[in-house]
Design goal:
Number of strands: 16
CATH class of one domain: Alpha Beta
Distance between the termini: 31 Å
Helix content: 25-40%
Mean pLDDT: 77
Structural class: alpha+beta
Order of helices and strands: EHHEEEEEEHEHEEEEHHHHEHEEEHH
Oligomer: single chain
Number of helices: 11
């Protein structure tokens, strides 16, 4: 890709300036998010007595932050209608992670995903949006998608995604990154499939194949990019697979059968979770009653379509595949993500769907 046809319209955000006067408490927000929440919801369904009481108590402790509320604007896409046959409307969650900054600095979105819960509640699709994707940012011009958070926080990030996909985003979810580390320890390590051997980052070596990581190793694993063949795309894959690995481990029968382990995991998770104000305990419990996920196989891991890397001025950027983006957006909007997933998994497009775990 060259500069032809792409123009730098947005001034790169200045990270030294605070976004708002009431500077928020320093936090590291990671992308290991909604699936863990969904795992907690499945636990609510699967268990009774102590488990149900403890789950409700823990969900009441979740932080609700008005700065995460999606905002209305004149051209905002309409809410999704219910699908034929009486199915519920699909739901889209923005999963947001930010760079770590001091209290006086604004961060950028280090990790950005959309979780699409199908109307029949049988599948959850986790879609990564590479942070260097060159996209229109409403009111700011063209720029990297992670600039949207620096310009306008979660609301502008949500608006950017909505305008890009022409699809309504229903909720925003964030989790403290240190909470992610503690969760991998709490479940006794997480097993993931690593497609690429890598060495060097803080002296860590991760062989190709199934590996189990925990704590600091897990953090290093999901943050590494320079030693991966596809850079940020490889890192996004690792983040998605870690989300799925945490859910699989959280749903392990040994954990479900152990009240002490369950209590510790759900308590630690909800203490790090932050959502928008509309994602209340009642709403989460209502979703729990609707879920028909059959396990980790119901979770689809994907990537927003790009067609390559290039430069715009002095910026290294990921160029959108406009044709596939239109196809992806239609599937997202019309709740036909399983068809989209099946087509692109079958054609082996690794820019859209990750490598098979049996390779």
């Amino acid at each position: 890709m060259t500069d032809s046809g792409l123009h730098v319209l947005a001034e790169e955000p200045n990270d030294e300036k605070p976004r708002r006067a009431d500077k928020r408490k320093k936090r590291r927000v990671g992308a290991m998010l909604l699936l863990v929440c969904v795992g907690a919801l499945v636990l609510v369904l699967a268990l009774a007595g102590f488990y149900l009481i403890r789950s409700v108590t823990a969900l009441n402790d979740v932080k609700r932050d008005p700065s995460l509320n999606p905002s209305d604007y004149p051209s905002r896409p309409a809410p999704a209608p219910t699908t034929p046959g009486g199915a519920k409307a699909p739901m889209n969650f923005v999963l947001l992670g930010t760079d770590e900054r001091t209290d006086d600095e604004v961060g950028r979105s280090d990790s950005l995903m959309v979780a699409h819960l199908s109307g029949d509640r049988k599948h959850l699709y986790i879609v990564s949006f590479p942070r260097d994707m060159w996209v229109p940012i409403p009111g700011k011009g063209d720029g990297k998608i992670n600039w949207a958070f620096a310009f306008g926080g979660a609301p502008l990030t949500v608006q950017t995604l909505e305008q890009l996909t022409k699809t309504r985003m229903d909720h925003t979810v964030a989790i403290d990154f240190k909470g992610f580390i503690s969760l991998t320890k709490e479940v006794g390590g997480v097993t993931v499939y690593n497609p690429w051997e890598s060495s060097g980052t803080l002296g860590r070596h991760f062989p190709k194949g199934n590996i189990t990581v925990s704590g600091d190793d897990a953090l290093i694993y999901v943050r590494e990019r320079k030693n991966l063949p596809d850079g940020d795309l490889g890192r996004a894959y690792r983040q998605r697979s870690m989300v799925k690995g945490i859910v699989k481990k959280a749903l392990d029968p040994a954990i479900l059968a152990n009240p002490v382990a369950f209590n510790s995991i759900i308590g630690k998770f909800t203490s790090t979770l932050t959502t928008d104000e509309a994602l209340t305990t009642d709403k989460i419990l209502g979703l729990a009653q609707e879920l028909k996920l059959s396990g980790s196989d119901s979770i689809r891991l994907m990537q927003a379509p790009i067609k390559g890397w290039g430069r715009v001025g002095d910026q290294a950027v990921a160029e959108l595949d406009q044709d596939k983006l239109a196809e992806f957006s239609q599937a997202l909007r019309e709740d036909k993500m399983e068809d989209y997933y099946s087509r692109h998994h079958a054609d082996g497009n690794q820019m859209v769907v990750e490598p098979d775990e049996d390779q």
